[in-house]
Amino acid sequence: MTRWLLLLFLGVLVGAIVHLITIMILPWTATQDAYLRLSPIAPFNTVVPMPAPTPDGALMPFMDPAFAGAVCRYDLSRGPVKFSVPVSQAYTSVSFYTRNDIAFYAINDRAAGRRNIELDLMTTTQRADLPEEEDVTAADQLIVESPTTTGLIVIRALAPEPGLMPVARSTIAAAQCRLKSEPSAAR
């Protein structure tokens, strides 16, 4: 009897290990992750609105039709990125993902406490290269460190009623994602 219990226990243990390894490897082997799906429509360091989801399909899975969305594929190899988006009337959120779809930072309009969500996105090395006096003036400036040089910034603005979707889209349209060394785009 103990022999059967031991075999059953080992079978469950091996099955659990194989299951966990498969789940951990799956994101690395996916060929159509978010980054690749957005590559044709989103150039680097530019905010691009995402098309609204339809019942027949959506660009990304689990898109909520009550949100206007936009994405910025960032590339920090040429320098830090300056990001800003005005907050909408209802709710605005910004999520940061690595190239491999791992979320590493998120902020919403209530956490920002301002009329704009503004931040600088940079790698740890770029942060370390900041001059000493710039750290002192950065007290009012939000700096987010990215674990990778490329990734995604996803912006969402809520339209609590269908008639408010143009307002949410205009909020998203005012978002900026550019290299910090580039001049600000006039809107």
In short:
This protein has 187 residues and is an alpha+beta fold. The protein has helices at residues 2-29, 34-38, 109-112, 124-128, 132-137, 165-173; strands at 47-49, 67-75, 81-86, 92-98, 103-108, 116-123, 142-146, 150-158, 176-179.
Q: Layout of helices and strands, plus pairs?
A:
Blueprint: H1 2-29, H2 34-38, E1 47-49, E2 67-75, E3 81-86, E4 92-98, E5 103-108, H3 109-112, E6 116-123, H4 124-128, H5 132-137, E7 142-146, E8 150-158, H6 165-173, E9 176-179
Parallel strand pairs: 6-7
Antiparallel strand pairs: 1-2, 2-8, 3-6, 3-9, 4-5, 4-8
Please tell me about this protein's structure:
This protein has 187 residues and is α+β, with helices and mostly antiparallel strands. The protein has two domains: 30 residues; 146 residues, Immunoglobulin-like. It contains six helices and nine strands. The strands form two sheets. It has a five-stranded antiparallel sheet with strand order 1-2-8-4-5. The protein has a four-stranded mixed sheet with strand order 7-6-3-9. A hairpin with a 4-residue loop joins strand 4 and strand 5.
Q: What attributes characterize this protein structure?
A:
five-stranded antiparallel β-sheet, four-stranded mixed β-sheet, Immunoglobulin-like, globular, 2 domains, 9 strands, alpha+beta, 187 residues
Sequence of secondary-structure elements: HHEEEEEHEHHEEHE
Q: Say what the CATH topology of the largest domain is.
A: Immunoglobulin-like
User: What is the overall shape?
Assistant: globular
Name given to the CATH architecture of the largest domain: Sandwich
Number of helices: 6
What is the number of beta strands? 9
Structural class: alpha+beta
Using only C-alpha atoms, the radius of gyration works out to: 21 Å
Give the rounded overall mean pLDDT. Answer: 86
| Biggest sheet descriptor | 5 strands, antiparallel
The largest sheet has its strands arranged as: 1-2-8-4-5
Work out the oligomeric state of the chains in this entry: single chain
Sheet-strand content, in percent, reads 25-35%
Tally of discrete structural domains: 2
Classified by CATH, the class of the largest domain is Mainly Beta
Distance between the termini: 76 Å
Low-confidence stretches: none
Report helical residue fraction.
25-40%
